[in-house]
Amino acid sequence: MRILVTGRSGQVAQCLQEVSARRDVELVSVGRPYLDLEDPESVLPAVARLAPDVIVSAAGYTAVDKAEAEPAVAFRVNGAGAGAVATAAGQLGVPVIHLSTDYVFDGFKGEPYDEEDVAAPLSVYGASKLEGERQVRAATDNHVILRAAWLYSPYGGNFLKTMLRLAQTRNEITVVADQRGGPTSAIELANVVITLARRLTEDTSRELRGTYHLAPAGDASWAEFAAAIMECRRAKTGRNTTIIPIATIDYPTAAQRPANSRLNAQRIAQIHGIRLPHWQWSTQGIVNHLLARELQEVMT
Q1: Of the candidates 115, 278, 96, 97, which has an alpha carbon nearest to the alpha carbon of residue 188?
Q2: What amino acid positions are annotated as catalytic residues?
Q3: pLDDT band at 299 (very low <50, low <70, confident <90, very high)
Q4: 3-class SS string, the chain
Q5: What are the structural domains, with CATH classification, of the chain?
Q6: Crossing angle of helices 279-299/222-237, nearest 10°?
Q7: Phi, psi at residue 36, to the nearest 5°?
Q8: What's the pLDDT tens digit per position in 183-234?
Q9: In a 10 Å sphere around its CB, with 0-12 CB exposed, 13-18 middle and 19+ buried, how is residue 178 labelled?
């Protein structure tokens, strides 16, 4: 099976590269200048020449705060760009797996969000991702839209890596404590994407398509997530950094974040049999991996 993933440098694309090597999958990553989501006309030629069995639409505009100042770019990439990828998949007759986000919701619900809940993004980024979902649905029925929250991994820029970097020079770190979500390993997500890709190529059933939420067992605030990262670090190195919980109002950002980013992942469990482990288990594995890599780099 040949999977084409849009983008090369994002953490999901890099995780897919790692996972595909273990799962007997040919993965081809394509990005600029050959495929540029700001130039929708570049998409079909770049995709068609690679003749994929499945397309994973992973590339996007991810600068959440910067998007508030340049909404046209965010919508061109996350909206029209995502639509162009799905249109190419439809013309080639192959499934597309499009990655979306919890930011399509406003976070006011008191429970985890279901796939049927009304989307009401608070930010330009969230609105642009919601537009991407709309364009994917309009372009082809042969799609899976996979929403996930709070991604982290050994690759790219993410919260877990930022916490470990800050802990190298700080004894205390202030972290927002009144936003909750499900910290999700991008390695786990990559494994799910490959599982879905295989199933979509083997089974054309309509009920396997549609929108799914992916989330680990358990949830946390950002401060609780940070504290768990520091505990893993302390257990491995003996060094301790204290997490100081603060309110969102004390950490102003250009884009408003949802207070509740929890996603209900029952549908993907019921239809595809996919369940992620507890976020603390996955966090420990990635922290240990990064610390071991850091030690190896120091020794060499």
Answers
A1: 278
A2: 125
A3: low
A4: CEEEEECCCCHHHHHHHHHHHHCCCEEEEECCCCCCCCCHHHHHHHHHCCCCCEEEECCCCCCCCHHHCCHHHHHHHHHHHHHHHHHHHHHHCCCEEEEEEHHHCCCCCCCCECCCCCCCCCCHHHHHHHHHHHHHHHHCCCEEEEEECCEECCCCCCHHHHHHHHHCCCCEEEEECCCEECCEEHHHHHHHHHHHHHHHHHCCCHHHCEEEECCCECCEEHHHHHHHHHHHHHHHHCCCCEEEEECHHHCCCCCCCCCECCECCHHHHHHHCCCCCEHHHHHHHHHHHHHHHHHHHHHC
A5: 2-151+183-217+262-278 (3.40.50.720)
A6: 50
A7: -125, 110
A8: 999 999 999 999 999 999 999 999 999 999 999 999 999 999 999 999 999 9
A9: middle
Interhelix angle 124-139/82-92, nearest 10 degrees:
20
The token duo for 108 is 């006011």
Q: Which residue has the tokens 């190195």?
A: 237
- Beta carbons of 59 and 9 less than 8 angstroms apart: no
Q: Which two tokens stand for residue 33?
A: 């200048």
Neighbours of 157 (CB within 10 A): 12
Q: Give Cα 217 to chain centroid, integer Å.
A: 16
pLDDT tens per residue, range 65-95: 999 999 999 999 999 999 999 999 999 999 9
